[in-house]
Amino acid sequence: MRKAADAAAAPTDVRRSILRGEEGQIGVLIIGYMLVSLLVVSVVMGASALYLGHKKLLAAADGAALAAADTFSLGDVAAPGEGPAAVLAPGAVQTEVNRYLSLTDAAERIPGLTVDSETGTADGRTAKVVLTGVVHPPLVNFLVPDGIPITAVSEARARLSQ
To answer: What is the mean pLDDT of the chain?
Structure first.
């Protein structure tokens, strides 16, 4: 009877000794998964911050381009039978962009906001606005202390219609 009891207890003793070698391994897995999860969360937060920062900058560039396109003056008649054409002056575009950005307090909402030298008009009818800003993503600021520079370009065309 003793042998039967020892034989029945032997598999459980073997299982216990195997399981004792595995004790604590689940803790390592949990820590590993937590680190991977935190890494994924920080990457998603950084990408979201960049996306939202670019959208803010693009909205400011769009508004500035529209305001600059409204500074047109009447030019010569483009073709017979047509009325006068809208003409933009590069200096007026730059001035209006700066005025628009100061009126909307864009510099307070977008860190490092600057108007690029490409802002103006190339053809006298289209206002082109190029803005540059800086985004500081959360959790990884120590890796990029100066932030990540972003640029937004927007164009608006001045056109007269009857």
So the answer is: 83
Cα-Cα-Cα-Cα dihedral of 138, 139, 145, 148, to 10°? -50
Q: How far apart are CA 25 and CA 52, in angstroms?
A: 41
Judged on CB neighbours under 10 Å (0-12, 13-18, 19+), 75 is middle
Q: CA-based angle 121:111:68, to the nearest 5?
A: 20
Reported as a single tens digit per residue, the pLDDT across 145-161 is: 888 999 999 999 877 76
How many Cβ atoms from other residues are within 10 Å of residue 24's Cβ? 8
Which run of H or of E encompasses 31?
A: helix 25-69
> In the structure encoding, which two tokens stand for residue 153, read together?
């370009």
Q: What is the CA radius of gyration of the chain?
A: 32
Task: Determine the residue type at 53.
Answer: G
| Tens-place pLDDT, residues 16-40 | 666 666 666 788 889 999 999 999 9
**Rounded Cα gap, residues 113 and 65, in angstroms:** 15
Predicted TM-score (pTM) of this structure: 0.74
Residues 6+ apart with CB under 8 A from 157: 69, 125, 126, 127
